[in-house]
Amino acid sequence: MMIATFSNARTTLACAHKGYTEGFNTAFRGGSVMGYALCSLGVFVLWVLLTFYRKVYPEADDWEILFDCAAGYGLGGSTVAMFGRVGGGIYTKAADVGADLVGKVVAGLDEDDPNNPATIADNVGDNVGDIAGMGADLFGSFAESTCAALVIAAAAVEGSNNTLSAAGWDAMLFPVAISAAGIVICILCGFFATNISPVKVEADIEKVLKIQMVLTAILMLPVIYYLAVLLLPEHFRLEGVRLTESGHQAKIHGSPFKAFICATMGCVGGLIIGLVTEYFTSHSFIPTRELASACKFGTAVNIIQGLALGYKSCIVPVFVLSSAIFVSFQLCDLYGIALAALGMLATLSCGLTIDGFGPISDNAGGIAEMALFNPEVRRRTDALDAAGNTTAAIGKGFAIGSAALVSLALYGAFVIRLRVKTGVNILEPTTFAFLIIGCMIPYWFAALTMKSVGKAAGEMVAEVQRQFSMKDSKGKTLLTGSTELKPDSKTCIQISTQASIREMVAPACLVILSPLAAGTFFGIQAAFGLLTGSLGSSVQLAISMSNSGGAWDNCKKFIKNGFSDDVELRYTKNPQTEEEKKAAPKAKEAHDAAVQGDTVGDPFKDTSGPALNIVMKLQAIVSLVFAAYFAAINHGHGLIQVQ
């Protein structure tokens, strides 16, 4: 966050004096600090932790206990991510919605107008939500996917010495090696964006960012294969959760090539999900342009179309995830799914760099507007921000896909840890009942977070209206050019801060306590059902909410920046031609409908949608860490002893 706030003013100055090349490079390098620092710290701290535990448990027979202890690393990362993501999301969207509704729709101000008291809170919120929140979320994914792979790999296989534990410490650390190699690949590819093929004109921005994502994914594949051959034994056996015809747990035969295919399914699957997300949310493609056309018929039609777009955007990602899960499970059982999650997160440094690029560019535009720079500077920062928005949507697609795989891997580690010999049978009454309850949890969570944004935004709207209605000694207001009154940004920042701290408690308690309550009172079968339902439901809801919100945001930019060939969708405050003057009232109505759609979409894409990633992961990691506790209560039947 510190580097991001240093970078945004420098990006504004670079765009003002040196054009697109320096502006892009400044924002990109500012974002890369989050990407490389977070991934490097994640790998290094985990390595130190495992090295320390290895001194306590030096024998390979004890490594199962060692990696159970290390699972706490994932729980810690995800717990903080919950507060960072939910708190940050409420903070940023309370300010954003309040600033948009009163500033743009009611008062007719430009975005980031210095007279709008909520502008500073909105810009601060971009850092809190998109830098701290997204960083914490993806750090949680990295920590948990690695811990899940380690716990599954360490599981002892009865009657076999040909396990990964027996193959030595290097084989066990194969998941950590993938993440470490990913950092090096992303650093090398970073030079492509800033030095080898830099941005020269506006059209280059999105192209360079997209090439960056594709290039890192392609270069990771041979590296993963090399690491698999180098570190893993030629053949190894794993504890599986599938049952043989005789009713015993299957013993899985793995190999370096199978492990490579599993990681590849995740890496390529993540890229496909990202590109599909871009198709549905970028104004370069048909879905968002159709959404812009719907704005001509009012806010209601825009919102109906936007919801439909989000639901439709689930189709391809769900098929991709299902394919990755099926292939990985067939090859290496649950270890394969954990490797697929790691494959998807292998290029995390690059993904986080691009995620950080977006809010830095957004803040640069705000600074250009508030510091009264030439309009051309704002146009350049807006071009950076628009590309950052699209690539951030791609990043959210990656985050959701990886969260689904991580959650499933953790769920599998939970089942293996409990030594469940009969598999998970969803037709057990307790399991099925809690499966339905699990499906409901994401909706309950989304309701809490969206209501929180609504309440906080209401407070923000009231405060901004109060300041706009104040008059100075000459009877002038902030909007009519008062020289005595100044916008009170501090009060707006306090509203967002207090609301985010107050409102993040209930959603976090729901996610952390629900698996604990199910396992404690109703036993492990209830926990199985809860995790199954929550995972299936969260994936669909997260994808649809994030993509609806992203499409509404880019639809607003499409109309505001005049990209359309339809004059009724080219909003301008100062129409020049006769045709523009005639269409101005219609264009204003379409713009207002788009702004209102965007305010609805703000909590969708930046609060509830992304936070559902953590719902999936946190419930699963809590269950894994407390597995022994659940098993100890009446032999896993819970305090109520449901049979």
Instruction: Compute the CA-based radius of gyration.
Output: 25 Å
Q: Number of helical runs?
A: 20
Order of helices and strands: HHHHHHHHEEHHHHHHHHHHHH
Average pLDDT level: 84
Question: Strands of the biggest beta sheet: in what spatial order?
Answer: 1-2
* Structure class: mainly alpha
Shape: globular
Tally of DSSP β-strands: 2
Percent of residues in β-strands: under 5%
Distance between the termini: 51 Å
Largest sheet: 2 strands, antiparallel
Keywords: Ion transport, Magnesium, Membrane, Translocase, Transmembrane, Transmembrane helix, Transport
Biased composition (Basic and acidic residues): 573-592
Subcellular location: Endomembrane system
Region (Disordered): 573-600
